Amino acid sequence: MEARALAIPAAPSARPLISSLDDLAKFDARACEQLFARGESAPLGAISGHPRGRMLAVPGFEAPFVAGVLRRFAESGLNVWEGKSFTAHARANEGRGFNRVRVPWRRRAFPFRTYATDSVIDGKPCLAISYDVPENPGFVRPTYDELRSVGNGIFLGRGMKKRSDKGPKLLVWFALDTNRQDRDPG
After folding, report:
1. What are phi and psi of 132, to 5 degrees?
2. Do the domain assignments include residue 6?
3. Three-state DSSP class for 62?
4. d(CA 145, CA 87)
5. Domain for residue 11, yes or no?
6. Which residue in 72, 123, 128, 131 is a FRET match for 169, CA 20 to 30 A apart?
7. Beta carbons of 178 and 48 less than 8 angstroms apart
8. pLDDT tens per residue across span 107-164
9. Is the residue at 116 inside a domain?
10. How far is CA 23 from the centre of its chain?
């Protein structure tokens, strides 16, 4: 299936009608950016447990053939990333989490902390995921994600690398579905 610029569906309230990761898999990087701009922040506890994840688009790799290969890879069993896992205590202002990967078996990787803040891109509220924690190696620590809700239990994320000399560099678009929970690999 080719990625192409799609009109973003909207409900009568102007709320996007995204109901699954499959809906988002059709979006290219430009459509992800437009949808993210219309997404809503959610309370820290709105994303918890072990939501299923999917890589959606990689900026700079949008040529139809290349995007199609990446999309098939993301949907296949060859993709090692399964999603993220989140914990936050009631009334906490910060949570913790980790990525779930299969290398070669299921395991936890690259822990992070999460909190509500304003986006480093557009200044609007979002949930942030910071990999700048002592447990991560130096090359992972500049990684920074932002999440917004784009449907009932569906979160769109932009994965970035923070740079001190320039603004953040967008690396990947991904999604998490809290309606489809995986088991904890730990």
Report:
1. -80, 70
2. no
3. coil
4. 16
5. no
6. 72
7. yes
8. 899 999 999 999 999 999 999 999 999 999 999 999 999 999 999 999 999 999 999 8
9. yes
10. 14
Interatomic CA distance for residues 19 and 116, integer angstroms: 23
Token duo for residue 143:
């990684």
**Residue 112: strand pairing partners:** 97
- Note whether 133 and 111 are within 8 A (CB): yes
Report whether 121 contacts 100 (CB < 8 A).
no
Overall residue count recorded for the chain in this entry: 186
Tokens of 38: 């219309």
Phi, psi for residue 115 in degrees, rounded to 5:
-165, 160
77: containing domain: 21-181
* Exposure on the CB side of residue 168, measured as CA atoms within 13 A: 18
Number of neighbours of residue 77 by Cβ within 10 angstroms:
6
Structure tokens at 114: 């999460």
Termini Cα distance of the chain: 35
- Looking up residue 52, the CATH number of its domain turns out to be 2.40.128
pLDDT digits (tens, 9 = 90+) for 41-70: 988 888 999 999 998 888 876 666 566 666
Give the closest residue to 100 by CA, choosing from 82, 114, 115, 86: 82
Handedness of CA 35, 36, 40, 43 (dihedral sign): positive
Residue 152 DSSP symbol: T
Residues of the chain above pLDDT 90, percent = 53
